[in-house]
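Comment thread on ticket #2218

A.B. wrote:
> Attaching the input chain for the structure job we discussed in standup.
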Amino acid sequence: MTTGTKGEVHWSPVHDGQFVINHGSNISLYKVEKNKTSQNCIKLSTDRWATQLAVSSDDLQYMKCLAWRPLNSPDNIIAVGQANGRVLLTSFGNKTNDLVGKEFAPRHSRQCSYLAWNPLEPNLLAEGFERYKNDHCIAIWDVTAKPYTNEMPATPDRQRVSLSESGVICRPHTELGPGEGSSSFSWFTSTNKCFVTGINGKNLRIYDLRAGMETSRAQKVAMTKLVWGVCVDPQCDKRVASFFENVVAVWDTRNFDRPLVTLPQEMKPVLRIDWCPTRLGLLTTLTKESGVIKLHDIRHSSVGTDEPEPNIMERFIQPLAHENITSYSWNPKLENRLLVATPRGNLKETTVYERIALSWSAEDHVTWSCSRKTIDCSYNGKLESADISLKIRHRALSGYGLRMEQLWENAELMENEPNLKTLWMWLDSVKSLIEENKKHSQVKNGISKFVGVQHVLRGDKSELDGDSSTEHYKHFTDLEHSSPLRMYQSDVRSRALQLCGWTTEGLGSKLHSLKEDGWYERAAALALFNLDLNTTLGILSHGAEVSRASDSTSASTLNAVAMALSGYTEDPAALWQRMCMGLCRQLTDPYLRAMFAFLTGERLDYEDVLNEDGMQIQDRVAFACIFLSDIKLADYIDRLTARLTEEGDLGGILLTGLTTEGVTLLEKYVDNTGDVQSAALACISTFPSEIAKDKRVQAWIDNYCNLLDRWRLWHQRAELDNLRYCNSGLSGLSQPPSQVYVSCNFCGKSISSNNPVRQRPFPGLYGSQQTKSRISSCPGCRKPLPRCALCLMHMGTASGTQRQNQPNKTDNLPAKLTLFNTWFTWCQTCRHGGHASHILEWFRDNMECPVTGCNCKCMMLDSIGRLMNEAHS
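C.D. wrote:
> Ran it. Output below, let me know if you need it in another format.
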């Protein structure tokens, strides 16, 4: 449809992999193949080659434009428009078709502007002309009409066609635009006889050939200079594009008064625009003397808005480097495939790749688009290496965090997550201390809330700022000749040791538990730090025997350490000291290294023990509480707290507690891992507390609730809400307002009895059945409530729960005011309903609404009802 510039390319509208190139006075036909078949093949891309099939045999002098007939037949019929306005139908060596060789000529010779076949009626060919006197500027030829001579009688079918002496058809099927000039033309793809054209360089017109006598009158007109290159989007024929000089506009035929989109002005005049035939809303523009084709994605444009120019996504493609493009053509079959031609005759086929639209589902499915395909991937690897969202969902399904009675059960679910296991074990131990403290009413000297060691040691009076602890000295057991070790004690240190699980009374049970778990190294170290060398040696020997029986490699190590410790001496110059220092460097277990560091190191600061990062944090903190002075202990606790908080190590919760400082530590942990689930559940387990109203805590809880909603884990969400809101006094939060309620048809107010409008006593609520109160009218306007469709009694009973002091009960618990049998129940489609028990009984045997004259199949509209019906049938 464009001017016949040398080297213009056109893909076949019907034949796969065929295209033509005009060479001035002839046309060449090519076929695209995946393999190189001869030396004369033209390379289009890395895996596609073009082979010449034929060359037109007709002499096509003064060719101005051409158009390929969109009819699926073996004949390649091409219409060629010439400078004198004539149209010739030609093919490639096939003369058997009756259309080949036909010529169509206007009344007066004038230049042909364009040719356009009707895509729905391929017998109609539109031709455009420049303005010439009072001649029509648009001629629509019926290429299949039979011509007649003067000897043949005229018939209605022949009145529109005449044959000159030279055999050229000169009367068109339809003529439009007398005394005007047409610069561009495009058929609509959904209506067979409608088209849009640019007229006189000042307006766009839409014509409908089905209008009968009104055919010559345009259906819609837009006054504009943007009348060149008009083209209809084949994917959406409500959208039309046109240009003038360096401005391109997109029009919507439903609002044809002004452009829907005006694209940014180009630096050079626009040479060609075209829509991609396989992609919705993708418009291409080519400017003069340019090697770049610009892509405009306008799918998101809207109609009728106050600001009709939305942001347009633009891209650029440059098929050939350092060469200008004279022509291009979209492949009508292969998606996003573009063929370009250069002034030197070079051809290049390129694929326009789509922007990847990636979507990540709530269940960890990743979906993205690839052309017209959609690819879906899911994770099938091990849970330990999975994304945090997969872990959170798996934990939620296992009931993680909802076992608030025994918090240690949550720790058992986290066997492969030592950080989280430490968190829940600390929460469980502190909860036990709080309950024990309440039982013995020792609030003043015991643990009363979820605080950390730092808060216990400092308190509000900064007790460690001075020398408030008492020094005492103690020997190793059965080593009275040894020098005593200086140790410290105070009430705050005792409470800190409680938090660490180190108490003198419970040391035996703790060591027994560690031995049962097979953690002999830690048990031996704890016994040694409590200056019980004999118990240490016994634990190591027992561990060596058990390891030997199970063929473990640690048996020899435990035996060697036991033998080394049995020869302990305090003399720093002794051979034992030097040998143990060498042995310490070869040990891999941190507790064994800490034992030798304790016996051979400097006993003023104990840096080698306290800096042993492999040891549990509670063990290092407890050791510091026993052997460090007040000033050194405060400095060590502050440094350790700051480091663990910065790292987001949940072991630091022992130091910070679940206070404001603990929330900061959790915040860092969430930033590092994205695990809002553990942070939210840990905070909920401590309610009531000062962190209940912290915005960060509320954000974690809300985000975790949203996750459960997206996964449709309604039961887990309900249990979480029960923990959060079951008692507003415990949670520190106000109860959420009612979101759903039954409203009156007349006044629109809630008819629930627990609504503030109806909060008044109900006589006989807990008395006999006969004295139970009933509400049969709206409490706001006193209008009667609807009747039950089955019993015909007015709906309405006391509903919800209300805290009442029952005379025959000692507890003060919420009492149900309404049984389920009397609840309001209705169909969401027909709005008919009644008491729940009556409705359920009716639909056990019926599918349709119980109201006479209503044919609504209420039960079948409910997914549960459909399942029940299938099970019943």
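A.B. wrote:
> Thanks. Noting for the ticket: DSSP finds 23 helices and 37 strands in the chain.
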